[in-house]
Amino acid sequence: MRWELEPNPTRGKVLGAYALFLLLALFLLGLIFLAYGVPPLKAYALLFSPLTDTLGLAEVARRTIPLLLIGSGLALAFRVGFFNIGAEGQLLLGAVGAAYVALFLPPGPWTLPLMFLLGGSLGAVWVGIAAWLRVRFGANEILTTLMQNYLAYYLVVYLVAGPWKGRQVFGFLYTDRFPPEAQLPRLGDTLVHWPTLVLGIAAALLLQTLLFRTPLGFEWRILGENPKAARYLGLKQGRLLLLAALSSGLLAGLSGVGEVAGIHLRLLEPAQISLGYGFTAILVAWLARGRPLGVLLTAPLLGLVLAGGDALKLALSMPFRVVDVVAGLLLLSFIGAEALSRHRLVWRR
Amino acid sequence: MEEALLRAVLFGTPILLASLGALLSERGGVVNLGVEGMMALAALAAFAVGLEAHPVLGVLAGVGVGSLLGLFLGVFAVSLRANQFVAGLALAALGLGASGLLGKRYEGVPLPNPLPEGVLAALALALAFGLHLLFFRTRFGLYLRSVGENPKAADLFGVSVDGVRYGALALGGGLIGMAGAYLSLAYRPSWTDGMTSGLGWVAIALVILAAWQPLRAVFGAYLFGLLFFLQFRLQGSVPIPSEAFAAMPYLLVILVLALSGRARAPKALGQPFDRGR
């Protein structure tokens, strides 16, 4: 009995593999809920509860925004072969850039554009370091970008506890509130800062077009699928890689601007700025299979997971870590199903 | 001075154990990015068993959970031939999440009879030498290295590539689990969410710095231990914000990776093995 490659699996087999692995993931999740001491069905109901009312849907939408921006950038970066795991840090750098403009530059109609500009640039510079280290020294970008997350984390903690700590706040670790010119408009009473949402959708469309309709995108895809061929064709690998990495960092930076200018209206502790969007977006990008447009579907899905995790936290005072569990299981079941559908069991040696 | 060296060894021990665990599977061609999550879950299991039964049984529980998680990763990375990097990251998230969730009831509970750090530190050092002998003096070591360098050739000689890789993941997972047990039973005899604080990632980077040699990992781990000690010692006595000190280990990992980025890795590292290809 052995395992063989199956290049063209039937649609039914692919669907079956995904269904099997999703069921396994739900089963394992149920076991973890049980071990925690919560009836699994009740927990599942809460996980999906945001879908049942408009307020819940707004919560899903709000969490979809950063996932959309970061996810489409990561879909591109993964496709080209740059495993940017540091979107969390790039998001934080974007928030820092936005806060600098909001707090220290004279406010005016230019404030918001300038926040996006500086925040996005800082995100790009941040990932640019890792990209440069990879191109120049061959340093593994999975580890460098991951380490940079910790650096960004401590940078933000330092800023909100030290030099940027608000004058009107006492025991808390955050800056003063942003002036009105530095606040993004929201939809009604919700926390949906729609300009960033529009930006996210535009980013997905733009990257999809770039990747599949332009010479640059063609070179990107060659580099990602077959680096050897890229070398024989004389493509400028370093520059292509850097460009894809910078795009993903820029978008992650923009998402950080959206979070502080649209929701928190100040710079605060890193764990409060981002609910692990950087990591969740890896899932978003992976599920979209390297197609920026696919992110339009997968970002809301993971947005639901984050909103559902919040519901579990509120209703059962469960640690928010539950989101990591769901995300990890989803990712495993997805790659497992993908792999299973590409293979078949053969009953001979 | 003596105190500094002692603390360096004691703090370097979990890094060493986890690093040896990651190194073992990487020698067989399987990247394990799940170390951080495996360590966290093993630390929790070790603490729970140590509290309810006995700390020595706790170590065994940590090692066992680590091994099981290694095999779990193997299902994806070896049998299903999935992307090892993504599978590892998913396992890291799952382990951190599940340990945070299930460990909530143990937060802040003290362990009445912790294990002596020195014994486990000595054991870790012995294990490093043991691994060196395993790699270069035994048949399994030869199989392991050949599977990591050229699985096709190993397969032609009748070595079970998948079997050796599962074995490496189980053994390595056990070492990673022991690192977790050391944290929750000896080093800081307690359980807190996030108590692995990035040590798993440091351990993965150390594998590259050590150029996949167990004995070099010993020096690297103690060097990191010394730096962590200096960080605690200098904090507050110099006019540098404490956040800068806290960030130092991570900055160091980046420097290490830049300096040793082109170190020669096992040739088949990260590549799933398919006989038909």
Considering the chains and any ligands shown, give keywords for the structure.
heterodimer, A: 349 residues, mainly alpha, two-stranded antiparallel ribbon, 14 helices, 2 strands, B: 277 residues, ABC transporter involved in vitamin B12 uptake, BtuC, 0% strand, transmembrane helix (chain A), transmembrane transporter activity (chain A), ABC_transp_permease (chain A), ABC transporter permease (chain A), membrane (chain A)
Write the layout of secondary structure elements.
The complex is a heterodimer of chains A (349) and B (277).
Chain A: E1 2-5, H1 11-36, H2 40-48, H3 54-80, H4 87-104, H5 111-137, H6 141-161, H7 194-213, H8 215-225, H9 227-232, H10 237-264, H11 270-273, H12 277-287, H13 295-316, H14 322-341, E2 343-346
Antiparallel strand pairs in A: 1-2
Chain B: H1 2-27, H2 35-52, H3 55-79, H4 84-102, H5 117-137, H6 139-149, H7 151-156, H8 161-187, H9 199-209, H10 214-234, H11 242-259
Helix pairs in contact in B: 1-5, 1-8, 1-9, 1-10, 2-3, 2-4, 2-8, 2-9, 3-4, 3-8, 5-6, 5-10, 6-8, 9-10, 9-11, 10-11
Question: How would you describe the overall organization of this protein?
Answer:
Chain A: It is found in: Cell membrane. The complex is a heterodimer of chains A (349) and B (277). Chain A contains 14 helices and two strands. Chain A is globular, with a radius of gyration of 21 Å. In chain A, strands 1-2 form a two-stranded antiparallel ribbon. Chain A has 349 residues and is mostly helical. In chain A, helix 4 runs parallel beside helix 6 (141-161). Chain A has a domain at 66-290. The longest helix of chain A is centred in the last third of the chain and has 28 residues, at 237-264. Chain B has 277 residues and is an all-alpha fold. Chain B has one domain: Orthogonal Bundle (ABC transporter involved in vitamin B12 uptake, BtuC). Chain B contains eleven helices and no strands. In chain B, helix 1 crosses helix 9 (199-209). Chain B starts with a helix and ends in an 18-residue tail after the last helix. Classes of the chains: A mainly alpha (349), B mainly alpha (277). At the A-B interface, strand 1, helix 1, helix 5, helix 6 and helix 12 of A face helix 3, helix 4, helix 9 and helix 11 of B.
